[in-house]
Design goal:
- This protein is mainly β.
- It contains no helices and 9 strands.
- Strand 4 and strand 5 form a beta hairpin.
- The chain is globular and about 45 Å long.
Length: about 130
């Protein structure tokens, strides 16, 4: 049976487009105190959580009509006791599988929670200039 126009592309399922987001949301736990903190990080910016520095490079989600699949490419560095910076993680994190590719450290764990378009935290370029 031939399709109009002779193309089979009409049969292929639609694929959800990945949406890039400017903000990645992480949670982290301090295993000594048991305190869990949730924090927003803008793409290509670095936020320090304990001795860790977290830098998301991209954060993808799907539009609201699709089942969400949230993933981010992240770099995490540790500031060691002798003040050296050591990369301890580079890779993809998946919000629906926080145990898969979460950052595990003797004191801190960090995992991706979500991606979003806006944050209550001011964007790094939007911070007011300091007075001289």
């Amino acid at each position: 049976m031939a399709l109009a126009g002779g193309s089979l592309s009409a049969i292929e399922p639609a694929r959800a487009a990945r949406m890039e987001n400017p903000v990645a949301v992480f949670s982290g736990i301090d295993k000594i105190t048991g305190r869990i903190t949730t924090f927003d990080v803008y793409i290509d910016e670095t936020v320090q959580f304990g001795a860790l520095q977290v830098t998301p490079k991209v954060c993808y989600s799907r539009d609201d009509t699709e089942a969400q699949k949230i993933d981010a490419f992240v770099e995490v560095e540790e500031i060691t006791l002798d003040r050296k910076i050591r990369r301890i993680f580079t890779g993809w994190m998946f919000a629906d599988s926080p145990g898969l590719n979460a950052v595990e450290h003797p004191i801190y764990d960090v995992w991706l929670k979500e991606c979003k378009q806006t944050s209550d935290v001011p964007a790094p370029d939007a911070q007011p200039a300091q007075e001289q």
